[in-house]
Amino acid sequence: MQTYKGKSVFSGIAIGRIYVYEKGEQQVRRTKVDDIQKEKDRYRKASETAMEQLKQLYEKALNEVGEENAAVFEVHQMMLEDDDFVESVESIIETQGVNAEYAVAVTGDNFSQMFAAMDDDYMRGRAADVKDISERLITVLSGGVSGGIQSEEPVIVLADDLAPSETVQMDKDKVLSFVTVHGSVNSHTAILARTMGIPALIGTDIPLDESVDGKMAVVDGSKGCIYVEPDQETMEQMQAKKQEEEEQKELLQQLKGRDNVTLDGQKVMLYANIGNIKDLATVIQNDAGGIGLFRSEFIYLESEDFPSEEEQFQIYRKVAETMAGKRVIIRTLDIGADKKCDYFEMEEEENPALGCRAIRICLTRPEIFKTQLRALLRASAYGNIAIMYPMITSLWEIRKIKEIVAEVKHELAAQGIEYGDPLQGVMIETPAAVIISEALAKEVDFFSIGTNDLTQYTLAIDRQNPKLDDFYDSHHPAILEMIRMVAENAHKAGIWAGICGELGADLELTKEFLAMGVDELSVSPGRILPIRKIILETDVSEYRKNR
Ligand code: PEP
Ligand code: MG
After folding, report:
1. How far is CA 113 from the centre of its chain?
2. C-alpha to C-alpha distance for 64 and 158, rounded to whole angstroms
3. Cβ distance 457 to 435 under 8 Å?
4. What share of the chain is helix, strand, coil (3-state, %, to 5)?
5. For 167-212, how does the pLDDT look when each residue is reduced to its tens digit (9 = 90+)?
């Protein structure tokens, strides 16, 4: 048995085989092949499959985003069949006697460099298309979907690090636990693990090779360790612990259906955070009163191109209908920083967390924003949707947003399209928003405090940087004072204030939040019942006296 230590992101026990996850892109190895004809045939066959995929993508895009935007897939089809490209791949296989994956990767690199060096803007833009084509071919050749998990049974996913887009694309039914060598406890990948309610470790000192791949292992999320090939005693202990945790969970189930009200009658809204429509099942299982944060950017991260108005509308409508009248707060896209989408074609930034992210993208690229708003407003006619805007720092931003929303409503009305009138709130996740919260409160229907970013920006600590985890003091008095202040300013203006950052789920602070008058806590679904338990057992006035 080998034991490796990491930092825990979510507790719980996972027992299963390890699956070493390799990123699609850099996994191309150069290997010698004996049968050159066979390798060339393999390449041709992969090319045919890629062609089929591109045709399907073209059709999908044609329906969803129109001919002009779909045209890129026609360009890709032409490139795939381009004589120079095909000749180059075949000649590398032939002259070097190497595998097709390697020949495609080298050709892709050469061609994209050649395009990138051209004077003509259009031709330069083709460099990315060539890369895309070669990656598609390599994925087909390697026999899988890029980023997918090729295993029949659910596994413990072991990776160097995982980007949010990789995590969302994984088939969740196949993941028992995430264990990464790098990563930070406050990263979105960690947040996703919490939403999925599965044990996860980061910063784990484990090798990523065949010495562990496919081996039986146990992840102990509360202790922050993974046992590879556990001995019988450890296995038995872990099985018993798992059983105990499951019994605890069952006990909590008895709290389902109860109101979130303290012993002295203070009511709190207890909502769930989700990133995906697939999370709805756990939201309902855990008896959430609504959805306090739907991170809509995950729809974008899961797509290969901008999701259309119709696609988004269907998703928002489904969430609203499934929640059957309960409130669903959808945050407009928060792309940027660690959540990157290639097709946004954002310029490289020195400090992405301080750069063009979230509402800044929406206000500078209103066509993207308006598509999302149209979908949200239309879906609002089917349920209790509220819209929430991230990364607000100034009053003018919310005023500008309201102007755009009015414009979109006007356009929908002129087109005779049905829409609703959702509440609109802002996230308080910058120190600036806290300081101007009294004025901001007069402009919106609610506040939701994003403590993850608020902590990052207040303590000047990159939430992505694992080396700073020890400095990332989420209980810092500055943060707690800011939360208190936001709640007070919200109440002065007659609106409510909640917390949707990870701190809202911190059981050590639940009583303190109640004492501050926080009206809503939006947390990962698995945290709802444990928080309800504390709420039911708390006398807030007593707590205030003794704190
Ligand atoms: C936050 O910053 O606290 C928040 C909820 O948003 P995200 O974690 O998605 O940045
Ligand atoms: Mg945030």
Report:
1. 32
2. 36
3. no
4. 55, 15, 30
5. 766 777 889 999 999 888 877 778 878 888 889 999 999 999 999 9
Nearest by Cα to 115 from 91, 146, 85 = 85
Nearest CA to ligand 1 atom 4: 450
pTM score, whole prediction: 0.70
Task: Return the C-alpha torsion angle 43, 44, 45, 46, nearest 10.
Answer: 50
Catalytic residues: 188, 500
Q: Which tokens sit at 522? A: 């939006």
Ligand 2 centroid distance, CA of 361 (Å): 14
| Residue of 478, 474, 538 whose CA lies nearest to 512 | 538
Question: What is the DSSP secondary-structure string of 250-285?
Answer: HHHHTTTT---B-TT--B-EEEEEESSGGGHHHHHH
Residue nearest to atom 6 of ligand 1 (CA): 450
- 326 secondary structure, DSSP code: S
Segments of 336-458 assigned E as strands? 385-389, 423-428, 446-449
- Ligand 1 pocket: which of 427, 456, 499 to mutate (most atoms within 8 A of CB): 427
First to last CA, the chain: 46
Own/partner pairs, 56-65, CB within 8 angstroms, 24+ separation = 57/304, 61/305, 64/308, 64/310, 64/311, 65/305, 65/306, 65/308
| CA-based radius of gyration for the chain | 25
